């Protein structure tokens, strides 16, 4: 497996989380596939436009995202990331702090890796 692609996507994941915390919608727009499916831990599915709209309108503010584990696997022009993270955010319904298990799928499009799918599930208390 080409380590270069794995390293590129790992760095992209870190940059995406930083952009989410900073509310940098412009940077996120470049990182996300136009036909993104973003499924939050509460089961709500958003498009790229809806996800970015919630950030730009201030309806969702990420305060901290801490990756606890992360595994990346490459399949041709696709990299699948699975892991666990701790997230703190503020939304219209109030503050949220929880641990999540997630899967992120990145595809190579026009020589650029982009997130095409995200799904998170709250991790059960241990």
> Separation of termini?
34 Å
What are the low-pLDDT stretches, counting only 5+ consecutive residues below 50?
Answer: none
Any idea what the radius of gyration is? 14 Å
* Strands, count: 6
Number of helices: 3
H and E order: HHEEHEEEE
Mean pLDDT metric: 94
Work out the strand percent.
Answer: over 45%
Largest sheet: 6 strands, mixed
Helix content: 25-40%
Which class of secondary structure composition applies to the elements? alpha+beta
Tell the overall outline.
globular
Strand order of the largest sheet: 2-1-6-5-4-3
Structure description:
The chain is α+β, with helices and mostly antiparallel strands and 126 residues long. It has helices at residues 3-22, 25-31, 48-56, and strands spanning 32-39, 45-46, 60-75, 78-91, 94-109, 112-122. A six-stranded mixed β-sheet has the order 2-1-6-5-4-3. It is globular, with a radius of gyration of 14 Å. The mean pLDDT is 94.
């Amino acid at each position: 497996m080409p380590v270069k692609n794995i390293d590129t996507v790992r760095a992209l994941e870190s940059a995406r989380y930083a952009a989410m915390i900073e509310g940098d919608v412009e940077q996120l727009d470049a990182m996300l596939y136009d036909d993104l499916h973003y499924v939050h831990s509460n089961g709500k599915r958003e498009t790229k436009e809806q996800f970015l709209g919630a950030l730009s309108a201030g309806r969702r503010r990420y305060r901290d995202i801490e990756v606890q584990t992360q595994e990346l696997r490459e399949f041709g022009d696709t990299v699948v990331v699975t892991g666990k993270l701790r997230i703190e955010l503020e939304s219209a319904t109030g503050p949220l702090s929880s641990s999540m298990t997630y899967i992120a799928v990145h595809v190579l499009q026009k020589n650029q890796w982009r997130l095409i799918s995200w799904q998170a599930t709250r991790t059960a208390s241990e």
